[in-house]
Automatic annotation (TrEMBL):
The keyword Transcription applies. InterPro entries: GntR_C, TF_FadR/GntR_C, Tscrpt_reg_HTH_GntR, WH-like_DNA-bd_sf, WH_DNA-bd_sf. The keyword Zinc-finger does not apply. GO terms for molecular function: DNA binding; DNA-binding transcription factor activity. PANTHER family: HTH-TYPE TRANSCRIPTIONAL REGULATOR LGOR-RELATED, TRANSCRIPTIONAL REGULATOR, GNTR FAMILY. Keywords: DNA-binding, Transcription, Transcription regulation. This is FadR family transcriptional regulator. The lineage of its organism: Bacteria, Bacillati, Actinomycetota, Actinomycetes, Mycobacteriales. SUPFAM superfamilies: GntR ligand-binding domain-like, Winged helix' DNA-binding domain. Residues 1-67 form the HTH gntR-type domain. It comes from Nocardia bovistercoris.
Length: 237
């Protein structure tokens, strides 16, 4: 629909922020010179896309909504479930992307600065080693920061979506392993430290190979016997 396309372009490419008032329905009808049914259909499409919300009443209007990672993850989870995709499939995607990102960071001009930023997260992991939840959150942040440091916006978006989809799995693992000794967490921290050493040295091949092995171990520890479980979008609301 042409009106929906024009409004979508205005929201996505315009200088609009989350929560901004796009206008009232009547004002938008006049602006785009369309009938009431045409405008309502356009707004219904945009609302379904998560780009606007409609506030009724005298002080209401059409509110801009910026697409976020939860919205993206929810939509992706629905597609994955419709295709009977298993959790193992999602983890395998992460295992392909993250080692490549590690190589990109190690071979970048700012690899020393990147190594220092990752070291700060490792310090947080060490400070919280006796707290399984806090330490694991810092470990998850290490993975996210690695992708951010790679600097590729497409990779960042894809990995945000993947991490959101598997977040429930990580929470389930934390519940099952909360009474385990800190030995496993220390082993993970040592692996993180090794990656940082390779990044600081500018060793792209070494960083990629090391993170390949790390992701393989992580997949085994997180999934266990649940690799064949199909993605459930009800866990990503």
């Amino acid at each position: 629909m042409q009106v929906a396309q024009q409004l979508r372009a205005l929201i996505v490419t315009g200088d609009l922020n989350e929560g901004d008032l796009l206008g009232t329905e009547a004002g938008l009808r006049e602006r785009f010179d369309v009938s009431r049914p045409s405008m309502r259909e356009a707004l219904r499409i945009l609302e379904a896309d998560g780009l606007v919300s409609i506030v009724r009443g005298a002080l209401g209007g059409v509110i801009v909504r910026r697409p976020g990672q939860r919205t993206t993850a929810r939509a992706a989870a629905l597609v994955l479930q419709s295709r009977s995709v298993a959790l193992a499939d999602v983890f395998e995607a992460s295992a392909v992307i993250e080692p490549a990102a590690a190589r990109m960071v190690a071979t970048s001009r700012g690899h020393q600065r990147a190594a220092n930023q990752l070291r700060d997260i490792i310090l947080e992991q060490k400070r919280t080693i006796e707290d399984p939840t806090a330490c694991t959150n810092a470990m998850i942040r290490f993975h996210s920061e690695l992708i951010l440091l790679a600097g590729n916006q497409t990779l960042i978006l894809v990995c945000e979506m993947l991490n959101e989809v598997i977040a429930r799995t990580i929470a389930d693992v934390l519940t099952r392993t909360s009474d385990e000794p800190a030995t496993a967490r220390r082993r993970t921290i040592r692996s993180h430290e090794r990656l940082v050493e390779l990044i600081a040295a500018g060793d792209g091949d070494g960083a990629q190979n090391h993170w390949n092995n790390h992701m393989a171990r992580l997949r085994r520890s997180l999934l266990g016997d649940h690799g064949a479980t199909v993605i459930d979008p009800n866990r990503h609301r």
